[in-house]
Amino acid sequence: MTNHTPVQPKASYGFEADNVPGTFAAPDLPYRPTDPLHYRPNIGLIACGGITSAHLKAYTGAGYNVVALCDTDPTRAEKRRDEFYPSAQVYSDYRDLLARDDIEVVDIAAHPIEREPIIPEALRAHKHVLSQKPFVLDLDLGEAFVKLADDMGVRLAVNQNGRWAPYFSYIRHAIEAGLLGDVATANFELHWDHNWTSATPFNNLHHLVLFDYTIHWFDAIHTFFPGRRATRVYASVECSRSQTAKPPLLAHVLVDFDGCQATIMVNGDTLFGPETRTSVIGSKGTIRSVGPSLQEQQVTLITAEGIARPALKGSWVPDGMHGSMGELLCAIEEGREPRNSARNNLRSLELCFAAIASADTHRPQIPGQVRSLPSSCVTRSGLN
């Protein structure tokens, strides 16, 4: 009698060569910033800090018409004027800029606490507003701003510029196109050196990582799970033993939805080998993006059809700023709400606020129940 030893099934660890499908042409998705067909309003910029060089570079590249620049320190406004819009008028009081009837859109690039009086005054002056992120420090106040914009008949959007980073935008459009099916997980790993903030006022912002920086990834989670509301958020933060910055530069975040999850893992004390990873997995496919920085990313899409690697054009800066303003202008022209509206962005802030409260209390939090941030998230000195 012949002995027959049963053949054991081959274990699959996800990297065997015969499990790798062939390649196919990457889907052509509308990930690039868009511009209005005809609408080219006069734009005013309020607050001219460091990040606004990226704003104005994007606006000049898109052919947008900035006619006024304002800063409490006029030399900063003059510097931006000389660099980008030599014929623009400079102001030191934002009320003088808002008084101009020929300005229809204002980009308010001041930081949250300084923006609080400016946004409602701009809305009451019947200006369409693009607010810098993070939008507000209090969700009730944010909702009041949204209602005021509705009452005044103007659009209020948030410069959540990461939405137009080429890789984030491509991933979002792949999800919206159904290429991944039902999304189950979205995971983000951020490894970079944020110790440069030790010589800046950011060093006094305890939740620097979760509030000012990771707001982009909370927004990504919100947009990668369209139509779903998170049920619970847990977060923790720690200081690395080797970091020189004062705020905690290590963080973990877990966001639960009904039937899916998202995670963020942060190490802002990565002195060697920086890397950013994004992975979104659904019932019909997986999409990943990996690179040494936010500006350099390679996207890979894997479905039953095979593997595709789109050759994406552009970079987070300045395309993110172009996309944010472009979407607002398109929405005004088309008579609709911007996709980056303040109303929409409040859902992202709910995740951020819940994570910060969780890190402080060491307990899970329900998004939407944490309505405001502690004073440790606020500093007035030179943050723009």
What can you tell me about this protein's structure?
This protein has 384 residues and is α/β, with parallel strands linked by helices. It has a domain at 165-314 and 342-377: Dihydrodipicolinate Reductase, domain 2. Helix content is 31%, strand content 22%. The chain has ten helices and 14 strands. It has helices spanning 52-62, 74-84, 94-98, 112-124, 139-152, 166-176, 208-213, 215-224, 316-334, 342-361, and strands spanning 42-46, 65-70, 89-91, 103-108, 128-131, 156-158, 183-191, 232-238, 250-257, 260-267, 275-282, 285-291, 298-303, 306-308. The strands form two sheets. Strands 8-9-10-7-11-12-13-14 form an eight-stranded mixed β-sheet. Strand 5 (128-131), helix 5 (139-152) and strand 6 form a beta-alpha-beta unit. The longest helix is centred in the last third of the chain and has 20 residues, at 342-361. It starts with 41 loop residues before the first strand and ends in a 23-residue tail after the last helix.
Question: Which helices and strands, and how do they pair?
Answer:
Elements: E1 42-46, H1 52-62, E2 65-70, H2 74-84, E3 89-91, H3 94-98, E4 103-108, H4 112-124, E5 128-131, H5 139-152, E6 156-158, H6 166-176, E7 183-191, H7 208-213, H8 215-224, E8 232-238, E9 250-257, E10 260-267, E11 275-282, E12 285-291, E13 298-303, E14 306-308, H9 316-334, H10 342-361
